Amino acid sequence: MDIASIIGIVGGFTVVVIGAFLGGSLGGLIDIPSVFITGGGSYFCLYVNFPLSNCIGVFKVMGRVFKVPNFGEKALVQKLVSFSERARREGILALEEDLEDLDDEFIKRGLRLVVDGTDGEVIRNLMENELSQMESRHNVWISVINAWATLAPGFGMLGTVIGLIGMLMNLEDTSSLGANMAVALVTTLYGSLMANWLFIPMAGKLSYHNNLEVSAKEMIIEGVLSIQAGDNPRILAMKLLAYLTPKDRKAIEADVLKD
User: Fold this and answer.
1) Backbone phi, then psi, for 249, in 5-degree steps?
2) pLDDT one digit per residue (tens) for the chain, 259 residues
3) d(CA 215, CA 208)
4) Judging by beta carbons within 10 Å of its beta carbon (0-12, 13-18, 19+), is residue 156 exposed, middle or buried?
């Protein structure tokens, strides 16, 4: 569970509620028609922008904001160094019996190409193409959330205009002008809140997750190609350690750089 995301969501909402309470307008912030116009309207416009599967699946993707991704970079470095050491001792074909025990399909496919004697440049092109396609899929989901962040304030303004039209049609009732104006402005608040409290931060967190996964897969590509080229395991380890954070690097550096 990503505690930071929970703190951000709960904290942001709490600050708005406390601010509204201290300002004496908490009760005026609740308006069901405004929720329908802003939330419902902006969501259904996503169906114009994107395929049905993306519009339905966006909620599941947004749920990933509350999960901490773990791509096992430290374990990957140790595993690749171990493969390199075995390949140097027993030859590339000795790795074949270990491939089925790998959980990561990306590294498994890469090493399978190595065992099959595929040229290094071909391996790089195939693995980088797979990485590129993965990143493109991730960016589609991020763009769906960013689109919703763009649409929500617009529908908030639309709801405000609808409210103002209703207010102007009843100008003779001067006692209700202030209340009607407040309700009209609530939809603008909802649109801004949805964009800045939820969707923009969520898209940012998913972009961060994407960058972590891309970095992990780039590390795998580097390791696979190093094994294919027959690099010294120590050289391979130094290449891969560069992808780790200083803390993770320190934790395994002595193990993988052993003489």
Assistant:
1) -65, -45
2) 889 999 999 998 898 888 877 866 666 678 888 888 899 999 999 999 999 999 999 999 999 999 998 888 888 998 999 888 888 888 888 888 878 778 888 999 999 999 988 898 999 999 999 999 999 999 999 999 999 999 999 998 888 887 777 777 776 666 656 666 766 788 888 999 999 999 999 999 999 999 999 999 999 999 999 999 888 888 898 899 989 888 888 888 777 776 5
3) 11
4) buried
Cα gap 225→120, rounded to integer Å: 6
Judging by beta carbons within 10 Å of its beta carbon (0-12, 13-18, 19+), is residue 130 exposed, middle or buried? middle
Using alpha carbons, select from 68, 75, 73, 95 the residue that is nearest to residue 84.
95
* Cα gap 154→49, rounded to integer Å: 15
Distance CA 164, CA 218 (A): 54
Strands, DSSP E only, in 12-133? none
Q: How many CB atoms lie within 10 A of CB 43?
A: 17
